[in-house]
Amino acid sequence: MAERKVRVRFAPSPTGALHIGGVRTALYNYLFARQHGGDLIFRIEDTDSNRFVPGAEEYILESFKWLGIHFDEGVSFGGECGPYRQSERREIYKKYVQVLLENGKAYIAFDTPEELDAKRAEIANFQYDASTRGMMRNSLTMPKEEVDALIAEGKQYVVRFKIEPNEDVHVNDLIRGEVIINSSILDDKVLYKSADELPTYHLANIVDDHLMGVSHVIRGEEWLPSAPLHVLLYRAFGWEDTMPEFAHLPLLLKPEGNGKLSKRDGDRLGFPVFPLEWHDPKSGEISSGYRESGYLPEAVINFLALLGWNPGNDQEVMSMDELIKLFDLHRCSKSGAKFDYKKGIWFNHQYIQQKPNEEIAELFLPFLKEHGVEAPFEKVVTVVGMMKDRVSFIKELWDVCSFFFVAPAEYDEKTVKKRWKEDSAKCMTELAEVIAGIEDFSIEGQEKVVMDWIAEKGYHTGNIMNAFRLTLVGEGKGPHMFDISWVLGKEETVARMKRAVEVLK
Fold it and tell me: 246, 178, 266, 237: which is closest to 29 by C-alpha?
């Protein structure tokens, strides 16, 4: 048999913002598809109409666009296996429900919620299965005429999967190896509800994966308990030969303590758990996003890739192309990965260092505008190049380099106390004259003239340079002094010095 083409899918439900754990699942599917020259399908699983949230689908698509995760087919991308929205595939599912019923692999059940509650109260740990279905109202216990009459009457029903007891179901997981579960612990899952004429996730995803030629199902660990049911469904349809291979990814865990990462952890510790800012249309609540918090998409991708997977070497900073090259499902962890959000900040810092200064300058322009600053682009590029190693986010650049664009309006009290000596006003007046007379205002040209002047006068270098810094910056921070004066230019440097002397003398 010819080797099967790799086809994987990411199939979110439009029930709200996309959790960062979902993003990682999509990323691993993307890396796997690209590495094997395969396809990535985008499917919307919207069979639960009650949980639908307007705008969620658009939000999910925008998230992937920002992150640089590209789909080959699916909702909004087209393709030959559509429709890709489950709510538009009702007729397809009905056909396959019928196949299961005709082959005795499923049955119709009329039990009302009240009847089910009564059974739960009567039988401890009740589950609808081989041991209890004989005492319930379903097509296995009722005459066919009665079943047909109830359906004709419009009585609501569900279709349940008929699971044979005491069978070992083998799931071969690419991450966890062989997982064996006895069928007796499984209940007869609902596959279809007449009320909305829609299947449940279990049936829909099997039918869709089969019809769309999915070769590998890479999904979160929370789906592992459902995997035996899915294997049995493939078997019931006679699709065992083309059944996809499964890989269940480790959970993302809280940064501290135990349990699954939640939005509350993000709110509590101050980090996003969504790729983009999310405005909940139902509650009106606004949740922070990685994009709006100032993260670069490449940093988020790199950070997520290493949560639950390692490349087998010590490399940490990897581009998308490198990740595609190195990704291997067998190197995914079996146990959960702690969500080390501080590492996400570290990655952002690394990517800011790596990016060309022009790119960072472009991203910094809106923040300058916000502070009413218009500056020549070349100047912004130069300043960014000097200061970007001091920040983890582009918005932090303003705090470390605003003095390049706006002259100090006041002078830091502590620095004045420490650095402004009795003779500082006199020395700075002299230095301003020296600087005004420098012809070669390059960094090197300035440094030579000023240092020669300090030596000639017998001044203390530290005292002069500290006071000089205070006049230009307003406090004791910033890069090399002659870098600052070079960027400011001669005229601005002298003007700032004279003003400081006036204020501080």
Answer: 246
188 and 220 within one domain: yes
The total domain count for the chain is 3
CATH of the domain at 213: 3.90.800.10
CB of 485 closer than 8 Å to CB of 472: yes
Nearest Cα to 166, choosing from 123, 129, 126? 129
| 176 and 316 housed in the same domain | no
Q: Does residue 285 belong to any structural domain of this protein? A: yes
Domain-terminating residue out of 354, 389, 423: 354
- Note if 155 is an active site residue: no
Q: What is the pLDDT along the chain (505 residues), one digit of tens a residue?
A: 458 999 999 999 999 999 999 999 999 999 999 999 999 999 999 988 788 999 999 999 999 999 999 999 999 999 999 999 999 999 999 999 999 999 999 999 999 999 999 999 999 999 999 999 999 999 999 999 999 999 999 999 999 999 999 999 999 999 999 999 999 999 999 999 999 999 999 999 999 999 999 999 999 999 999 999 999 999 999 999 999 999 999 999 999 878 999 999 999 999 999 999 999 999 999 999 999 999 999 999 999 999 999 999 999 999 999 999 999 999 999 999 999 999 999 999 999 999 999 999 999 999 999 999 999 999 999 999 999 999 999 999 999 999 999 999 999 999 999 999 999 999 999 999 999 999 999 999 999 999 999 999 999 999 999 999 999 999 999 999 999 999 999 999 999 999 999 999 8
Structure-block tokens of residue 145: 């005429």
State the DSSP string of 84-138.
-BGGG-HHHHHHHHHHHHHTTSEEEE---HHHHHHHHHHSTT---STTTGGGSSB
What's the CATH number where 475 sits? 1.10.10.350
Neighbours of 278 (CB within 10 A): 24
In terms of domains, do 462 and 315 share one? no
Active site residue: 105, 263, 355, 388, which one?
263
Containing structural domain, residue 492: 357-504
Residue 194's nearest CA partner among 152, 164, 236, 162 is: 152
Q: Are residues 137 and 184 in the same domain?
A: yes
Give one DSSP letter per residue of 269-305, joined into a string. Answer: HT--SBSS-EE-TTT--EE-BTTTTT--HHHHHHHHH
| CB-CB contact of 29 with 209 (8 Å) | no
At which of 196, 217, 249 does a domain end? 249
Same domain, residue pair 243 and 96: yes
User: SS3 breakdown of the chain: % helix, strand, coil, rounded to 5?
Assistant: 50, 10, 35
Q: Distance (Å, rounded) from C-alpha 391 to C-alpha 316? A: 19
